[in-house]
Specification:
Elements: E1 4-14, E2 18-36, E3 41-45, H1 59-70, E4 78-84, H2 94-109, H3 116-127, H4 133-138, E5 141-147, E6 150-155, E7 162-167, H5 174-179, H6 187-206, H7 209-216, H8 223-226, H9 233-242, E8 247-250, E9 257-261, H10 266-276, E10 281-285, E11 293-296, E12 301-304
Parallel strand pairs: 3-4
Antiparallel strand pairs: 1-2, 1-11, 2-4, 2-5, 5-6, 7-9, 7-10, 8-9, 11-12
Helix pairs in contact: 1-2, 2-3, 6-7, 9-10
Amino acid sequence: MKPFRIRVPASTANIGPGFDSLGLALALYLTVDVSPSSKWRVEQHSPHLSADANAEDNYILQIARETAGQFHKELPACKLVVSSEVPLARGLGSSASAIVAGIELADQLCSLSLTPEQKLELGNDIEGHPDNIAPALYGGLIITTAAAGRVDWIRMPGLDTDVVMSIPRQDLKTEASRKALPDMFSRERAAAASSVSNVLVAALLSGDYRLAGKMMESDLFHEPYRAHLIPHYNDIKLYAAEQGAYGTVISGAGPAMISFLPKGKGKACADQLKTELPDYQIERLSVDRTGLHVTQSSTSKERTSE
């Protein structure tokens, strides 16, 4: 085995009414450097990960073993050096990034030759929904649907906006955020919520970001039920709007929030948010358009899931 590196982007999901179906890859990365070893060793280098890593407890390795087992393979021992820019339990797809990394680790070590579609279906089976898995794999803005044991997806045109992320220090577990949602919608509520989502997609396709932002903030599927869980929910929307944001919504299950702004206005928005919310991590981000990225150091060849 020759050393290689796996890199997976963070992602934001839902983007308002695209509940469990719309996801966007962001340029914050989980990287895993893999090299031969006589026994399993894991090192973690990130403020978001424990430095005292036990190989057997590592989630990426657990996913890799689970994936290899489905194909009746056993992973050879390796050393993993894990670095992450992705905050945990903040609504930035940290679990999806780890799942994609684990599937790719098994694919590389066991020569499974998995197709991107197989990786997506494996990731969806583990995560339970594909909205973060798909952009982590493919990059960009992705719409997905999972039904009847298969996942279908389509890449949207490039999102021509600035992106600013507001990340609080405290986490919010997805399970707790899910519990805030109603178990059922009336037919009228479901129809209204779906129509908002449809107009959002149409607005994004046509490049009408003003209308897209309006639809993002008109979500009826999850934001009204989760808003009370998000620190400074209304303040962040207000500050971003003052800087010309098209829309500001909860990132995934929260508690981070993401703002979409006209090109060139992201810096001013980030600066104001840093002033108003000094305890927050404010990130002006770009969209990742590559997704899963593997570099084999011996040949400098690069593979992606595109």
